[in-house]
Design a protein that fits this description.
65 residues, alpha+beta, two-stranded antiparallel ribbon, 35% strand
Length: 65
């Protein structure tokens, strides 16, 4: 075993690293019966942390009102 294989990372540390950099999740799900598409779901998600140095994209500034 190498040093990398023996290294243990806690789930909290892994989530912290992922949220600090951001994660993009994409996927497609299709429910079919007898070759007929009944339901199709397209998933596009961006998961990231927001702090004081990085403003939230959902808050409007006073100039934008």
């Amino acid at each position: 075993m190498t040093v990398v294989e023996r290294r243990e990372i806690a789930l909290v540390d892994l989530l912290d690293r992922l949220l600090a950099g951001g994660v993009v999740i994409t996927g497609d799900v299709t429910l079919r019966i007898a070759d007929v598409d009944l339901v199709r779901i397209d998933l596009n998600a961006l998961i990231s942390s927001v702090n004081e140095s990085v403003p939230s994209p959902f808050e409007l500034s006073a100039e934008e009102w």
